[in-house]
Amino acid sequence: MNSAGRLTGVIPPVVTPLTEDRRLDVESFERVIDRLLTAGVDGLFVLGSTGEVAFCTDTMRAQIIGEAVRIVAGRVPVLAGVIDTQTARVLDHVKVAQDAGVDAVVATAPFYAVTDTPQIRRHFEILGSRARIPLYAYDIPVCVHTKLDSDMLVDLGRSGAVAGVKDSSGDDISFRRLCLKNRAAGEPLTLLTGHEFVVDGAYLSGAHGAVPGLANVDPDGYVRLHRALAAGDWAAGRTEQDRLAALMEICLSAKGVTGWGAGVGAFKTALMLQGVIATNQVPEPFDALTGDDVDAVRTILAAVGPRELSPAPSGR
């Protein structure tokens, strides 16, 4: 967070380690968070897509938020995902997160029921007016099937309803347009990129920070990348970004699973191989990576990863 109170820098979307029977592994969660904080990250985002928000019961969500706030103990801001289908349900999650002591909440557009820009705008206006803490808009059309309109977002920023945007749209043209419009309006929004491969490009466009899932695996690398880019050392930033892009190939290496399970499954597998979490278990209906898929992650980690690997647990 910078001196003006704006949340900038590296804000990893924290993985949710599970026990073999798919309960929250609190000890592993604490190791993940402490490792991120030791690396010098600027904030933590729990219950994002990487944090398995879509798979968690309300009870599990509350446990994850409570443990995160306890472990962090005020050392950095904690953001919590309050993602749900419609406004009333999101407001319930906002209350739980606020009461637990998080510093900001992150919400997508409503989904399942078809909505258009007027309803989406009203959704964020309602959330922003009723939340006691800052609200960030999460632009992830691959999951909610709505691309957030850049003019709407800047207007919401001007009005104070939304503090910033986490962009996971994969649309570099739209993000550049949002950056330009935000700059022309006096930068009412904090803009955060969620794309591990192109953080340097997003910063060049006007991003203020990054929310990279791969930072769970290599937090030091993303902190170095942010610091180089913030200092205007684009050559050093490109070198670090190229290595991180090569490391991100772990998410594309699995042959036995695709989609969400391949990406988050790879993050968890890498953390298990690094000795940070006890298992690489994922929520149902997905299965943890095994066999050749684990070996593929191990090979990439050995080539471009941040540290030596721990011995693989038996059976994995």
Structural description of this entry:
By secondary structure, this protein is of the alpha/beta class. Helix content is 46%, strand content 9%. It has an 8-stranded parallel beta sheet. Mean pLDDT is 94; it is low at 310-316.
Quote the distance from N terminus to C terminus. 39 Å
Rg for CA atoms: 18 Å
Tell me how many strands there are: 8
Give the percentage of residues in beta strands: 5-15%
Q: Portion of residues in helices? A: 40-55%
Structural class: alpha/beta
What integer is the average pLDDT?
94
Strands side by side in the biggest sheet: 1-8-7-6-5-4-3-2
Using the alpha-carbon principal axes, give the shape: globular
Q: What is the H-and-E element order?
A: EHEHEHEHEHHEHEHEHHHH
Secondary structure tally, helices: 12
Low-confidence segments, given as residue ranges, are 310-316
Largest sheet entry: 8 strands, parallel
Task: Considering the chains and any ligands shown, give keywords for the structure.
globular, 9% strand, 8-stranded parallel β-sheet, alpha/beta, 8 strands, disordered C terminus, 316 residues, single chain
Secondary-structure map:
Elements: E1 9-10, H1 26-39, E2 44-46, H2 58-72, E3 78-81, H3 87-100, E4 104-107, H4 117-130, E5 135-139, H5 141-144, H6 150-159, E6 164-167, H7 172-184, E7 190-193, H8 199-205, E8 209-210, H9 219-230, H10 234-247, H11 260-273, H12 291-304
Parallel strand pairs: 1-8, 2-3, 3-4, 4-5, 5-6, 6-7, 7-8
